[in-house]
Amino acid sequence: MSVHRLSGRSLLAAAISVALLPAATQAETETLGWAAQSYIPVIEVIGRSENSVARQTGTVIVIQLEDLEIMLPLSTEDALRRLPGINAKSEEETAIVSNIGIRGLAASEAKSLVLEDGVPVAPGLFIGNDRYFNPRIQRVERIEVLKGSASLRYGPSTIGGVVNFLTKTPEDGLLLSARLGSFDTREVMMELGGRSPSGEASGGIVATHARSDGFLDRGYEMTDVMAKAGLEIGERQSLGFKFSHYENDANISYRGHLLGEYLAGATNNPAPDDYYLTDRKAFDVNHRLDLADRTTLKSVVYWSEMTRDYWRYDVDTPASNAAGRWVYRDTLTGNNRSFERYGAETRLSHGHALFGLENEVEIGLRALREESNDTRIRATRASDRTGVNDRHIVDSASSVAAYVQNRLEVNDRFAVTPGLRLESYDQKRVILTDNNATASTSNTEFMPGVGATFWVTPSAQLYGGVYRAFSPASNGVALDGLTDQRLEAERSTNMELGIRGLNGDFSYELVAFRMDFSNQVVTGNSDPNLSQSNAGETLHQGAELALGYEIAGGFGISGNVTWVPTSRFETGDNRGNRIPYSPKLMANLGVDYRIGALRAGLFAHHRGEQFGEETNRVDIPDNAAGGIWGGLMPAYTVFDATAQYQFSSQLTLFGAVKNLADKRYITGLRQGIYIGPERSFEVGLRYRM
Hints:
The protein has helices at 11-19, 23-30, 65-71, 76-80, 259-263, 317-323, 475-478; strands at 60-63, 86-88, 100-102, 113-116, 119-120, 140-146, 162-167, 173-181, 185-195, 201-212, 220-233, 237-250, 275-292, 295-315, 328-352, 358-380, 388-409, 414-431, 437-457, 460-471, 490-503, 506-523, 532-550, 555-569, 585-595, 598-607, 610-611, 632-633, 636-646, 651-658, 666-669, 673-675, 680-688. It is mainly beta. The protein is globular, with a radius of gyration of 25 Å.
């Protein structure tokens, strides 16, 4: 992992500066074609050509490797929470389970699409359980975030937008990295890369092993191995291969502390014998072919298999209420699930001259199949993790999708991009422990959209669009009670209007957005055969502002503010209430300093108050029989300080202090109170051979 030199601009400014390079530079880069990019092809959401940001009709943020190296995030969510519009509801410091919400959408809801190298990472896009896998930050070198109409072409659940984690391609040679930190955290990482004498074939391995006692004694042991290889076939064709294996045994649970424990400053694991065991294997094959100077075909075939065993001890509620903490019985339940997914996707882009103007059309096709195997094992402390399977459900879904969009350059300042996406999917549920009882449903969604960009000046660009997005109801909702609940997908009409620009050392982006759900799925219908309904209209609207300025003397400052005054239920019993896990205000501020071989950063993150559930109750339950776990979580601000020093081209030393003021705060509510990590320290080094 080499240390590169960046200006002191914010992450946003780094994206904008790419967008606003002179036209001559843009044209020169475009003529280089795929050879100017990584020799291991992958599906990128933004792209790396000089004008890729300027071509997007939606908001764009790009986090580079250099930014990750100075942030020193503990997880992908730790990096994402620093960006405008994104709220992370952390359940523990390394974010083994994914919980993010974008632009007023509740964190932990499947309304924003998460990809790794352009491939979906959620175990189930249509069958549910989207939160069970979260890519490890150690394998990531670049994060792309795309919101607005430009996200339409990437799949379902793009209401909030698309997050794409791009994985590392190891450089030639060997890089070793080690990190020690609070909670007895120990991590070692190796990156090994090389290429053939001709340079046409290359490959490498990124391997990480980490273990920790964890904050609140929620320990884990994690191994993550990724192998990548690429092959250039002639001058216009390339292949890429990636295999990954991830394993994590974590002493975590869905239970937090009871109110009395939290107020007394508890530092123990509230569920010391619960375990969350994850194992995932995945394989991708990418192909890129330049058919002509302005015609490119990109394809990917992918497969993944994942198991998630979740062992939880049952609670003795009366004893818990008497003790003021969770008291557990000797009975143990294993909610154990496995998932398999395979899919194929291809994208054709072609430049043409319709109406005598510059055009680029993109056409995409995708086929996807996913299946889950859900078992519930009843065990005891004496017969640990073995017992009777009293619930065995198989969920499956098949889908096909197609999209087309055409970017029309009306003149050298104005471009418009209409598009259309179609998703058709079938869902099926079989309960093997109920004599193979079966139910199925199907749905087809049409999602039109249009976006535009306009150069107000050579250094300021207006952009915006309107599009229809959707999130499918999962099998467990759509086929609840083995009855077709007649649920359509959750649909939202999204609008966005923004301006981005770069003027010398000053960069900015301001965008207003609106997401209007016509039928957000809610629960609690009185009809016993229709336990879900499409009666929940919701409205989300607000604005994001991001600024960056490079100050003299090696200092740079950057910041962003997200303001979501409206995020509410429009119909139903909760009409007028605010969406849970949707703060009105979030903000980030960063100060960057560099002199010679030293680079340091001071970061502040603020999250406003937010409700824990739909009724907007203010008080937090004070006992184990609290019913719906909700309450109003107070606002908080935390500060982090990081630094790195490059002794030579081979050796870099880095360190961080997280939560400098040792702020005690609540991150979430779910069967108790989730507490944010206390002040922690870490130190490490990178050495390249």
